[in-house]
Amino acid sequence: MLLESLNDRLRGWPRGRMREVTAHIRSQKDVWLAEWHPHLTSEAKPLSPYRIIHELLQVADVPNTIITTTRAARATSCRRSGTPSHR
Question: If you average pLDDT over every residue of the chain, what do you get?
Fold first, then answer.
């Protein structure tokens, strides 16, 4: 019902705010990224999980990649083989 009302009100046409909204989102993302960049690229030991994920996202084919923890991968492997995963 809400969707129908919106469609009727907009008459199928965008409101012409795409550029404005896109620019606003980009500016907010840029601010966030500037704030978080030190965490995403930190050389601290031990490695930051944020850095690990950031670096993986730089090299992985994200739409075609599944990244899991060792424990989750082991549990999947154990389910296939019938052995307990808690060993």
Answer: 82
